[in-house]
Fold this protein.
Amino acid sequence: MTTSEPDLAVQAPPTCHGGLENLDEEHNYWIDEIEGALPADLEGTFFRNGPGRQRIGGKPYGHWFDGDGMISCFTFKEGRAHFKNAYVRTPKYIDETEAQEVCYRGFGTQIPGGLRANFLKRTANPANTNTIFHGGHLLALNEGGQPWEVDPGTLETVGPFDYHGALSRTQVFSAHGKVHPSTGDYFNFGAGISGMGLRGPKACLFLYRISPEGKMVKQSHLPLDAFPFCHDFVITERYAVFFINSIIFDGMGSFLLGRRTISDVVRFDENRAMRIAVIDLDTLETVRNFECPPGAIIHFGNAFEEGDEVVLDGMYASDFDANAVLKDVFNPNGRFSGGTYNRYRLNLATGAISVDTLCGQESEFPTFNPAVTGSKHKVCYTACSVDNGANSFFNAFQSVSYDGDSTLVTLPPGTYGSEPLFAPAKNPKSEDDGYLLEVVYDGYTHKSELQIYRADNVNDLACTLRLRHHLPHQFHGHFSTEVFM
Ligand SMILES: [Fe+2]
């Protein structure tokens, strides 16, 4: 080696930031680069959603939440795997593609032109957070708007979806609805305004129950004393549980006037207790409220009933410092991280509440086999941030037993993971009889791959499907046992 050559031994591994670059192309191909054997008992369709582009006209959006929704789809059929991806054709995507500049406000993005351009403008719905296939419809979801329907076979955008007029124009729909395993009902919610009071608009959570056939069969609303930052919830056999976090929107007037973004006015209020509302799934009415010290839980694991108690898992944070990273995603010093895996017990008879830290590993995006939603589970999975020499994003994942025993799988430095999602084997014999699907971005090659692990032994990497390109870091996904082609 001459003195002018870089010493590769001391070069830092690449960061996660290449995985935030745009994937403007839409692909459709059979995956032919496979390492290992694709499991014969894995069949179905794995949908992912996330911001496929984080820049328009070369300029970054003002927040990770504002990138345009792109559905990616891995289909497993007869021992082969197919990949395709397509953007959701929202007005934002169409207009900004044409103009090659920001045309709509976002969670943290302003339209160029100052106050005049942003005055009284609503934020756009980028349809970029999650997907669900329920009631015969594949939906792209973002909590700031209504669902967008996408054809599950072709990924062509069908259009906005309001449950045949059941969602009014101002009612939004969260990205984290839950399907009840016994009834097939799909429960979801959306933050909104239930009416006008003496002190202005009355904040609430709209609650929705949708039949297995995809019909909105019941609505209600949970009154709140302030506009909530509520992203996810849990269901048990009989209840839904919402945590109203200590994250508040402080100064929405300046947002409405066009001076600041929502991201600018969101903050953690260390004096605001978390309110916990337990809702009857049948009536959609409140059964009991609880209160616990200030905090924030963005994502939840599973929940179930045990005697008089509701037991639930959530990823706890004592602040919302993560927003600084989310609104400056290309900052090389930024580090995406997670929360603490807590378990809450809510006694519906006495009103007592207890909380324990189940697992000390910093992590986020908890998932589990959806078949055990609302009943006692054996295992949960999370994306983790560990110290492996390249710590800018999730770089590991873990399985966590019900009692909190962690099995951690650390990715090589310079490669970055995602929300691990469970896919059942055909005719599964147990809760964890199946696979853990993990999309990994390789910063060295600027390409992504799908790693398929045995869910009952996450150290067993069954197979790797290599894509011909990168896949921008996604938020969430959904596995359907149906094969859509
Ligand atoms: Fe989420």
